[in-house]
Amino acid sequence: GEVTVRVYDVKGRLVRELKDEPAPAGAGQVTWDGADGGGRPASSGLYFYEVRSGDLVKIGKMSLVR
Q: Which of 37, 38, 34 is closest to 66 using CA atoms?
């Protein structure tokens, strides 16, 4: 099914959409290069990621350290 991965800052603002395309079932991997949607480096700090696939939504947090 279609998988969407988004990164948000602590204020809930969308920083980057990493993947929005069909993907095969099973485990997968997405790497964030630490840049925002315009290609500018994001600041060090706490970020949240959201993975959506059909009715499944997973949210987690991660730290970016520069």
A: 34
The CATH number of 2-64 is 2.60.40
> 41 and 15 in contact (C-beta within 8 Å)?
no
Contact 52, 31 (CB under 8 A): no
| Distant-in-sequence, close-in-space partners of 1: CB < 8 Å, separation ≥ 6 | 22, 23, 25, 53, 54
Q: What is the mean pLDDT of residues 20-40?
A: 83
Report pTM: 0.86
Q: So where are the chain's domains?
A: 2-64
